[in-house]
TrEMBL record:
Gene Ontology MF, one: heme binding
One matching Pfam family: NorB_cytochrome_c-like
Cited Gene3D superfamilies: Cytochrome c oxidase-like, subunit I domain (1.20.210.10)
Cellular component aspect of the GO annotation: membrane
Keyword Membrane: yes
Protein name stated in the entry: Nitric-oxide reductase large subunit
One GO term of the biological process aspect: aerobic respiration
Signal peptide (UniProt feature, chain positions): none
Domain Nitric oxide reductase subunit B cytochrome c-like: 37-217
InterPro entries: Cyt_c_oxase-like_su1_sf, Cyt_C_Oxase_1, NorB_cytochrome_c-like
Domain of life (superkingdom): Bacteria
Length: 745
């Protein structure tokens, strides 16, 4: 059995076993998720909330932006609080003051430490005891807790409607007046907030930990790290060190890289360009415009952190509230990056066979129009949803689903899924003759098609939750899309495409490229698939999910430790022949991908990976630190690099504007680094210290986030943002200048 055959078997086993584990514990999540009761009642039997009100409240929260307005269980946006941490701490203080007033006729803060300790024990017994009756489907709460619910319901009603007393706080949280416009809706959203908070402190049956594994940290209610959390954090770090050692040993043992003499001239000059290949230019026009729009929305979104009710005095929140600007900003990132990658696939598939199948040109045009409709239609629906112009059912189908990165309504999700399968068909049809011919590139092409099939298929995970699915279950499937689809199979696709491009340039042998792709995919997927669970530590899942997530997500970092070698290797390749200077900037963007893979995905990713770290920093600015440097640094840079590879092939005899590309490359990288190091990292570290000392509620509070020094750190981000913005504009300028000046090419 040759090495290639063994790697194919290894790939199949990794996929089968990993998805088996992912599926089995997905079933466990269904069984052990925090129960949504039929009703919540007082000890006297009076109904406080019904199960339907909780479910409708979840939909109302989603309609106003959901995870784009603060967060729940740590997942979401970062300007407003985490509503579960906020409700929990406020509820605890209210009940403690109630106890102190009834017992001592004073406030909790006025008591001595011994008296406070006694009341905390009483409070924890009250809040942590699980009173859910699975037979009747009811949760019973005490009179004191009912008073707390009534108090907090009035508080959140004032915040989300138009109470003038909350004007300053609304501005701090970037929440417009009348985000919720009637009392019935507000009552239902309070029901959802109460239930989501109940799950953070109520102990699982037969256990001493809450449904969310004692998250968020709050000393008053007894939410603190568990022994399991500490133990599996240790395991993940030990495993990381061990596997890095094994990886380095394997790399040294495998010897030096194969040196392939480069061809005398560019092999792509001999390659024909089919009519459908020329059509991908307009995809890159849209990519460029979406990049600029996403950047502008990012500026608006970041500014809401210092001026929550407008833009330099302009009341922008009345027509473009924070929830909409952030939704569009994050969604457009996925759209333009995916479009760049899909366009690269549309170029490569017919390039292999050298001709278009029947109707290929029509299919490329059809897909282009479909993608435009999806982008514009979903953005319009999200605005209508957040502005409360849709009912709950219409909002689910056409508006804002409220889940970060998959905010688009269900109709648009289905439309996009159909579009991905159209794209898959356009990939497969030109390659069928090549597969039948059994060329040396066959196995590399098979891997290419496997990744394309996975991209089309796994987006369907976004259809696995319904309008009123339990939040814990919806989060399980959401991370299938965000982690497996975006971070997983797009990564495989990118690995294959880069290898294929180097093969086509004559810089790698086909067999070497195939073996490298298979090995890289096996290593990445070994940690990446089950590593999905590291997003689910505190979302109402069983303890084993945390154990598996901690263990396998550590493996995702292992291959990134050798990423500097990959960057150096690509740099050397770019210097092996004079004609390769034409590919300088595409290759430089690949080198940038390697750098950001190490820093953004590796270092900044791992600092929030171990359970003990994430327990204190989930939902703090350490998350957007990782998100920006990994999403744009890795996938965005790669999207631009692939786009430049295709444009270099399309415009073979055209002299590029090297000065413009130089400005673009360095502005994007320096700007992104400035954004991370000057603002996101110091803010995240400060929040983490406060979270450890005081609790998550304080780390996300207006008091901390509007501190004068914190405001200075937020403004410092503008330095990196401006430099980064120059890079975005010059990239767009380059694409349009190149394509419009050379229309006949």
């Amino acid at each position: 059995m040759n090495r290639e055959h063994k790697l194919w078997i290894g790939f199949a086993l990794v996929m089968l076993l990993s998805f088996g584990v992912l599926g089995y514990y997905g079933y466990e999540i269904y069984q052990e998720s925090p129960p949504v009761p039929v009703k919540i009642v007082t000890t006297g039997g009076e109904v406080v909330f019904t199960g339907e009100e909780i479910k409708d409240g979840q939909n109302i929260w989603q309609s106003m932006g959901g995870q784009e307005v603060g967060s729940v269980w740590g997942h979401g946006a970062y300007v407003a609080p985490d509503w579960t941490a906020d409700w929990l701490h406020r509820e605890a203080l209210f009940i403690l003051n109630l106890y102190a007033g009834n017992d001592q006729s004073t406030t909790y803060d006025a008591l001595n430490p011994e008296q406070q300790a006694a009341l905390k024990v009483r409070l924890q017994k009250e809040l942590r005891t699980n009173t859910y009756d699975p037979v009747s489907g009811t949760i019973t709460i005490s009179g004191e807790r009912v008073q707390a619910v009534e108090h907090l319901s009035m508080y959140y009603k004032g915040l989300f409607t138009d109470d003038p007393g909350f004007d300053k706080l609304r501005s701090d949280y970037a929440i417009p007046k009348n985000s919720i416009r009637d009392e019935a809706r507000m009552h239902k959203m309070n029901a959802f907030f109460f239930w989501a908070t109940w799950a953070t402190v109520t102990e699982r049956p037969g256990s001493t930990i809450s449904y969310t594994h004692n998250w968020p940290a709050d000393e008053l209610v007894g939410n603190k790290p568990t022994s399991d959390l500490l133990a599996w954090s240790g395991v993940s770090i030990i495993l990381l060190i061990l596997c890095i050692g094994i990886m380095v040993f394997y790399h040294v043992k495998s010897g030096a890289d194969e040196n392939v003499p480069p061809p005398a001239e560019d092999p792509l000059l001999k390659q024909g360009i089919t009519p459908s290949m020329r059509l991908v230019r307009k995809y890159f026009w849209i990519v460029s415009l979406l990049m600029v729009l996403q950047m502008l929305l990012g500026i608006v979104t970041a500014h809401y952190g210092v001026e929550g009710d407008g833009l330099y005095g302009i009341p922008l929140d009345r027509i473009l509230p924070y929830a909409v600007s952030r939704t569009w900003h994050t969604q457009l990132a996925i759209f333009w990056i995916a479009t760049a990658w899909l366009a690269t696939g549309l170029y490569i598939a017919p390039a292999v066979s050298g001709k278009d199948p029947k109707y290929q040109k029509f299919g490329v045009n059809f897909l282009f129009i479909a993608l435009l409709i999806i982008v514009l239609g979903s953005m319009t629906g999200q605005w209508l949803g957040v502005m409360q112009k849709l009912n709950l059912i219409d909002n689910f189908w056409f508006g804002h689903q409220g889940y970060e990165y998959v905010d688009l309504g269900r109709f648009w999700q289905i439309f996009l899924l159909v579009g991905l399968f159209v794209w898959l068909a356009l990939m497969v049809r030109p390659l069928i003759p090549v597969l039948k011919a059994k060329t040396p590139e066959k196995n590399l092409i098979v891997m290419f098609l496997v990744s394309c099939t996975a991209i089309a298929t796994f987006y369907a995970a976004g259809l696995m939750w319904g309008r009123q699915t339990n939040l814990a279950i919806a989060e399980y499937w959401r991370w299938w899309v965000v982690h497996l689809w975006v971070e997983g199979f797009f990564e495989v696709f990118a690995t294959v495409v880069i290898a294929f491009l180097f093969v086509r340039l004559g810089l790698l042998k086909t067999k070497t490229a195939t073996l490298s792709v298979l090995l890289a995919t096996i290593i990445f997927m070994s940690g990446g698939i089950i590593g999905t669970f590291h997003h689910l530590y505190f979302t109402g899942t069983p303890t084993m999910v945390m154990a598996l997530g901690a263990t396998f997500s550590a493996l995702e970092v292992v291959p990134l430790t050798l990423i500097g070698y990959e960057a150096w290797h690509n740099y050397k390749l770019s210097k092996t022949a004079k004609w390769l200077e034409d590919y300088k900037w595409p290759i430089y963007f690949m080198i940038a991908v390697a750098f950001w893979n190490f820093l953004g995905a590796g270092i900044f990713g791992f600092i929030i990976n171990p359970p003990i770290a994430l327990y204190y920093v989930q939902g703090l600015n350490t998350t957007p630190l990782h998100g920006h440097t990994a999403l744009f640094g890795v996938y965005g840079m790669l999207g631009i690099g692939l786009m430049l590879f295709v444009l270099r092939s399309l415009y073979r005899d055209v002299k590029w504007n090297e000065k413009l590309l130089k400005i673009s490359f360095w502005s994007l990288n320096i700007g992104l680094l400035g954004m991370a190091l000057l603002s996101l990292l110091p803010i995240g570290i400060w929040q983490a210290v406060e979270s450890i000392e005081h609790g998550m509620w304080y780390a996300r509070s207006s008091e901390l986030m509007q501190h004068p020094t914190m405001i200075v750190l937020k403004w410092l981000r503008s330095i990196g943002d401006i430099i980064f913005g120059i890079g975005i504009v010059t990239t767009c300028w380059f694409v349009f200048q190149l394509t419009f000046k050379n229309k006949k090419q």
